[in-house]
Amino acid sequence: xxxxxxxxxxxxxxxxxxxxxxxxxxxxxxxxxxxxxIASESVYxxxxxxxxxxxxxxxxGFGVFLIFLALSPYGRVKLGGDQSKPEFSFRxxxxxxxxxxxxxxxVFFGVAxxxxxxxxxxxxxxxxxxxxxxxxxxxxxxxxxxxxQWSIFGVAGLAIGYSQYRKQKNGLVSTSLxxxxxxxxxxxxxxxxxxxxxxxxxxGMATSVGLGIMQMDGGLNIAYGIPSGALTQIILTAVMTGxxxxxxxxxxxxxxxxxxxxxxxxxxxxxxxxxxxxxxTFIMESIIVGLGDYISNYVGYSLRMxxxxxxxxxxxxxxxxxxxxxxxxxxxxxxxxRVSKGRTxxxxxxxxxxxxxxxxxxxxxxxxxxxxxxxxxNGTNIGGLVLEDxxxxxxxxxxxxxxxxxxxxxxxxxxxxFLVTSADxxxxxxxGMTSGNTENPGMRLKIIWGVxxxxxxxxxxxxxxxxxxxxxxxxxxxxxxVILILMIVAVSKSLRREPNDSMKxxxxxxxxxxx
Length: 515
What we know:
Distance between the termini: 55 Å
Pfam families: BCCT (PF02028)
Helix content: over 70%
Number of helices: 22
Protein name: Glycine/betaine ABC transporter permease
InterPro entries: BCCT_transptr
Main location: membrane
Number of strands: 0
Subcellular location: Cell membrane
Strand content: under 5%
C-alpha cells in the first residue's frame, strides 16, 4: 500500500509548468529584489484599481448561493453516497477547518485590524480614536472574518467534494467543471485550469506563511530581544518547512488532525486568558454590538465601493482579503472537501458559515476588544504601535496583561503550529493536484512542494515584504475568481440532475405543471 501513491504520483505537465513558474518567480525575486518590489506594487495597484468591483460582487454572490443551497431541498444531498457517514468527529472537523482556513491570518490581524480601523476610519471623515471609532472597527473586522471569507472556501469545497465523493471522480479543480464542459472537454484547458489552481494555492499559501513568519519575527524581537530581520525570517521558514514536511509523513488522520486539535486548545487558552485578565464585560458587550453591526451592515459592506471619492480603503482591506482568500481557495476547498466527506450539503454549509466565523468573532472580540479598551480608557498606545509595525500588535497587547512572556511564547507557538498545519495541508493538496492522486499523494511530491513553498515565501518577504505578498495574492486571485464562478455553474447544473429522493419529488411537481 505505501508504494501505490508513489507509483501514481507522476510528475506530469501540471507539475512542471506550475513548479517552473513558482521557481522562476522566486529566483527573480532573489536576483532583482528592487525591481521585483516595484513590479509587485504596479501589479497590486493595477488589479485593485480596475477589478475591485469583480471581487466584491463575486464574493457576495458566493454567500447568497451557499445559503440558498443550504435552505433548499438540495441541502439533503451528501458529499458521498446516500448511506455514507462522516469520517471525522464534529470537533475534529471544525478544528481542521479553523486551523487550515483562518489560523495564521486571524492571529496576525486579530489585534492589528480592529486597532488599524480604530486609528484610521474606514470612511472618509469618519470617527477616529473614540467610542464610535471603536464600534465601527469591531463591526468591520467581523465583516472581514465572517461569512464572506468562508463562502469562498465553501464554493470551492462544495464543487470539488461533490465531484470527488458524490460522483466518485478525482478531486481536481478541472474535473469539478465537467458538468459544465462535458467529460471529454479540451485536455489543454484542463491542464491550464489545474496549473492555475496550483499556482494560486502556492502563492496564496505563501502570503499566509509570510504574514506568520513576519509576525513571529516581530514577536521574538519584542518579547525576547531576538534580532529581527531577514536572517531570523529565513531560519524560521526553514524550521517550519522541516517540521511540516515531517508532519505530513504521518498522514491526514494523525499529523494534521493532532496539530489542528492542538491549535484549537492553544487558541482557546489564549482567548480565555485575555477574557479573564481583560475587561470581560466590555469584551462580551463589544462582541454582541459588533455582531449586530455586522448583520445590519452585511449587504452594504459586501457591495461597498468608493468611485466618487477616489479613496482606496476598500481596495487596501476588503479587496485584498477577498483576493487572498480566493487565491488559496483551491487548497482550502480541496481540504474541506476531504474532511467533510459523508456530510450533507446543508450540514457542510452551515458548519463552515457559522462555526468558524463565531470562533473568529470570539478571538477578535477578546484580543482586539481588549486592545481597544486599553487605548480608549487606559491611555495606552497600542494603536500607534500598530500603525508603525502591525506585526507588533499582538505582543503590544500582551505587554498590558500579566504573564507577558509566557503568553507571548504561547502566541508564537500558536502561530508556528498554525503555519505547520496550513502548510502541511497545502502540500498534501498541491501534491494531489499535480499527480492526479488526490486521495493519497506521494511523499516525494509533498516534500518538493514543501521546499518550493518555503523558498517562495522567503523570497517574497525579502523582495518586497507585505506588498509582494499582497500582489501575489491579487495576481493569483483574479483569474481563479472566474474559475470559482464556473464551479458554481457546474455544481448547480449537476445538482439539478441529482437522483436522490428529494430531487425526485421536485421533478414530479415540475412534471405535473407541464401536463
